[in-house]
Specification:
By secondary structure, this protein is mostly helical. It is built from 14 helices and no strands. Helix 6 packs antiparallel against helix 7, helix 8 runs antiparallel to helix 9 and helix 9 runs parallel beside helix 11. It is globular and about 65 Å long.
Length: 307
């Protein structure tokens, strides 16, 4: 079997299609189909014959597919599986000698580590991504790596360092030119960067800064990023709790759940559970009771777990 650039392009276009579904409906929507595509269509291409140029592109396309598989598993709460796919993606990127793509995968591993509360490891992975792609990363790509470091620093409670690194990320992003950036970083736009800032200041419990970034993120989020928008709106709700406005927070969260539709994401559900924890001292408030009832109805806790 002869493999050409057309085969690689077909892989990339299919991965982009799955990426769009992931952003819109969550990792649980089409992960099984993506896994089948990766196993039965992508990996068999390596058994064919191809030129050095095609081989480099094939390794990169396969790495992108494996990375998305890692993200979809992570989004479903299957963290061991997600990490295995991300490590496979890293190895494919390294085999194709693509330093920027390898660094991107390390940033994805940083994101997962931060989510799991491994803040030191998350910061180290983000810094490794920056160092690994120092000579190859474009401004938007470097901004994303810096944002991952800022998230880790915020998780660890270091407000000063968070603000400094987040500012570096903003300055790097301001230097970016969309036409000079790789296609895969197109998702990391001004709204995405603002969302990362909102998460940072939510974790630091600095609500006015959180709302500043939330407003920027919501105003600029493009259609098709339903999961991202749900995350940012729930970060906003958390910041309202931090300002002692639980009724307003609960009303906003009710609207988020109502708008979420068929979103299949364990991360999204964790945002809801975390907000419920923040609202626990106000459990007798009418809106808080309505929110808790809606979450219980829409997302019942697994049998044997605390509801």
């Amino acid at each position: 079997m002869s493999v050409g650039l057309g085969d690689v392009q077909a892989v990339r276009e299919t991965v982009r299609m799955f990426l769009g579904l992931d952003f819109r409906y969550g990792g649980g929507h089409a992960r099984a189909a993506l896994a089948q595509f990766f196993e039965h269509t992508v990996m068999p291409l390596f058994e064919g014959s191809y030129s050095a140029e095609v081989g480099k592109e094939l390794f990169a396309a396969a790495a992108e597919a494996a990375e998305l598989l890692g993200w979809t598993a992570y989004d479903l709460g299957q963290h061991g599986l997600g990490q295995r796919y991300l490590i496979q993606s890293l190895r494919l990127a390294q085999a194709g000698n693509d330093r920027t793509l390898a660094a991107r995968v390390m940033a994805s591993l940083s994101h997962q580590a931060n989510y799991l509360g491994h803040f030191q490891a998350a910061a180290q992975l983000a810094r490794a991504a920056q160092e690994g792609a120092r000579s190859t990363a474009t401004p938007a790509v470097m901004a994303m790596f810096l944002a991952m470091e800022a998230r880790a620093l915020a998780g660890a409670g270091d407000a000063r360092a968070t603000s400094s690194v987040l500012r570096e990320a903003e300055l790097s992003f301001e230097r970016s030119e969309p036409t000079n950036e790789p296609q895969w970083i197109s998702y990391f736009d001004a709204a995405e960067l603002a969302g990362e800032g909102a998460h940072c200041f939510r974790d630091l419990r600095i609500p006015l800064r959180t709302q500043e970034f939330v407003t920027r993120a919501i105003e600029t989020t493009a259609p098709g990023y339903e999961r991202t928008l749900a995350f940012v709106r729930l970060v906003h709700a958390a910041s309202l709790v931090h300002q002692k406005s639980p009724e307003e927070a609960a009303r906003l969260a009710i609207a988020v759940v109502s708008d979420a539709g068929p979103l299949k994401s364990a991360r999204y559900i964790r945002y809801l559970r975390d907000l419920q924890t923040e609202l626990a001292p106000f459990s007798t408030d009418t809106a808080v009771r309505e929110f808790n009832s809606l979450v219980k109805q829409r997302y019942p806790a697994p049998s044997g777990s605390k509801g």
